[in-house]
Each structure stands twice: as C-alpha cells, then as structure tokens.
Design a protein that fits this description.
Helices cover about 30% and strands about 25% of the residues. With about 210 residues, it is of the alpha+beta class. The chain has two domains: about 110 residues, Ribosomal Protein L22, Chain A, CATH 3.90.470; about 90 residues, Ribosomal Protein L22, Chain A.
C-alpha cells in the first residue's frame, strides 16, 4: 500500500474544505531540494534538510497537479514556509514521513496547520505538560489518544501563529472530546481532522 492509499480517507475528509493533502516517505537525496547555508553540515541538520526537501518535493508534485509547475515553497528567515501567492498551507514531518497541506487563499478557510507524529503513546512527562484535565480522560483505554491531542495542538499553533502572531501555550488550546474542533483561550474556534493510521496526523483550520 502506498502512502497515498494509506492517507486516502484522511485526504478525502479535508477535500470539502478545499484542502489538498499529500504524504511522502523521506528518502536519501531529498536534501538536495532544500538548501540552507545557515544549517551546518552535521548528521542532525542533514536529517532536517532531507525532511524539508522531501516536503518541498511533495509540494511541487501537488502543485503540478493543479497545472502550477513552477510553484515552489520558499523559506522565511525564521524558518516558516513561504507559500506561492494565492495559497496558504502547512508542512510537517517526523523521522520517516513528510506531509503537506494547502488551500487557495480567499476560500472557506483563512488559516491551516498540520502535524505528524508516530502512532505511539505520548510519554507521561509530555502528557503532563500538554494535556488539560479533561483531555487526559480522552477516551479511556485508547493509548494513542494523548498523542492525537498533542498533534492537534501542534497543528492549531501552526495555523494560528502565522495568521496573527498569537503566542500559544498548550494550556491555551482545548480540544473537543471527539477531536472535531479546538477552542483557544480567546474563544476562537478551529476545526480539526485527525487520524491515527498509518501515522498520527492532525489538520487544524480556521473558517474565513
């Protein structure tokens, strides 16, 4: 089964919101698609460049399906991706997989964020830092529930921070019990779409 097949259901849940989603296995040589002189040539930075390169290769392939063969994702000084004019989006990766989600500006959503995590329980020390009291009870007996909340909050941050620079801590984001949405401390709401197979992936978006 290809990654496209594995994430087909997740991608179909995002499509009604005008969001295109793709995933790519990170491969040796992908680093050639991401050049950053600020990153020293160390094994750790090679892994970062390779993952960032994989995401940009994937984004270029996805834009090509829209007939935008010259569209590329740049990089801001602070490291944030720069999307081609007319698009908003988000990229993420773990050790093995890069993901990309984007949508056209001026559509039904004004902000978008994604995150990917291994399908494994959230370590206890991280869970104590990330999860609110109600989230620690989601749902009883599911070992991946905490990891999904963590991914959802990371996706929310990646959606909101580029929009207005809002500084957010994990406690400032409360996820619904069904992970269908999240509420910020200022009352704003974001929709959530999440999956736990084959990796934990969450997408967060704010309606226009």
């Amino acid at each position: 089964m290809t990654l496209e097949d594995a994430f087909a259901s997740f991608a179909s849940r995002l499509a009604p919101f005008g969001v295109a989603f793709g995933a790519r296995e990170i491969q040796p040589g992908d680093e050639a698609a991401f050049r950053d002189g600020a990153l020293e040539s160390t094994p750790a930075n090679l892994a970062r460049r390779r993952a960032s390169g994989a995401a940009r290769i994937l984004a270029a392939q996805m834009f090509g399906r829209f007939g935008l063969d010259d569209a590329k994702v740049g990089r801001a000084v602070g490291g944030a991706p720069i999307w081609p004019p007319g698009f908003i989006g988000s990229i993420a990766h773990d050790d093995t997989t890069a993901i990309v989600a984007f949508a056209r500006s001026g559509g039904p959503i004004q902000a978008l964020g994604v995150d990917i995590e291994p399908a494994a329980p959230l370590p206890d020390d991280l869970a104590a830092f990330v999860l609110t009291g109600s989230e620690r009870r989601l749902p009883a007996g599911d070992p991946i529930a905490g990891r999904m909340v963590f991914a959802a909050k990371e996706a929310v941050y990646k959606a909101v921070h580029p929009l207005d620079g809002t500084p957010l801590e994990y406690a400032d984001i409360v996820c619904d019990a069904d992970l269908g949405g999240a509420t910020l401390r200022d009352g704003r709401r974001l929709a959530l779409v999440a999956t736990s197979a084959p990796r934990v992936v969450a997408a967060a978006f704010m309606p226009s």
